[in-house]
Design brief:
There is one protein chain. With about 325 residues, the protein is mainly alpha-helical. Helices cover about 70% and strands about 5% of the residues. It folds into three domains: about 1-35, no CATH class; about 70-170, no CATH class; about 175-300. The protein has helices at about 35-45, 60-65, 70-100, 105-115, 125-135, 140-150, 155-160, 160-170, 175-235, 245-280, 285-315, and strands at about 1-5, 15-20, 25-30. It starts with a strand and ends with a helix.
Length: about 325
Amino acid sequence: MEERIIDDEYGRGIRLKKTKDGYVDATDELAEPETEESEAAETATDEIAFEFPVLETDEDDEDLVGLSPEEALALRQKKEAELAQRKADYEQLCKEGEELLQSGSFHASELKYEKALSLDEEATEASVGYWRAKTADFTQPDVLIDEYVEAGIESLEFDLGYEAAEIVKRDYRAVFEKRAKELEAEEAPLAEEVEGKIQLRRGYLRARLKKAAIAFAVATVPMLVALILTVFFGLKNFTTPDSDYIVPTIALAGVTVVLFIVFAVFTNKFVNACRMYRANEKVASTEDGERLLYIRDKKELYQALLITVAEDEAEA
């Protein structure tokens, strides 16, 4: 291995080594040789990780922009005082609402809880109290159910708040079970009555539809024949030099108009017969049918409340 030392531009010695593969290693002659301690220190230096603290953001930062420390402190204290006052007002309204509810003053209690709802983000106690007051402590549970019979259980839980909904379902389960059974007992005879009337009308409407279909077919065929003949003789007038087909064409055109009027009348009757027959097959086509569907929807909502309660108890 060939080795020699040269000076660089600063006068420092540079050791050159030519390896057997033809590569040249340049080493600072004045540099201290690397030791195990220096290598360990270098490795340790490479492995140093810097962790920066995560600064918590203040929701009031925007309000504090441009304020002096004294003004910022005053603003914070003001907001804390307002928050404490809102909490105190919320608790006081809920307390007064509960007292009024216990005394039977349901409407006054409802107004107290309604004010409390706007003072707390969750407002679980106020939400439960509001519906207790509105339903006369759930002696009239249909007041709640009628509100959500179309929207369904999901909307009910969302509007009340899931925690408040769970409290209502748990505390008034017996009320919901009783009302669901009452609706089921009310549904059975009404469903039988509605179905019986549908069956009775079905026979009459089927006969009417059949009659209208026959009349429609009878009116359609001659009208189409007359129309085809009118077109046929009308075209003949352009293929012959004489006017031999003008009279038959005019006569057939008049017959076609008359037959078309008859056709339109029977078509209207046929369409109405079809519409009435289809409407009869729908339960909601009568007042009793609409009431039956409403009862079923209410019963399903009560059952949804009970099913959810049963699932929660099973998981517990």
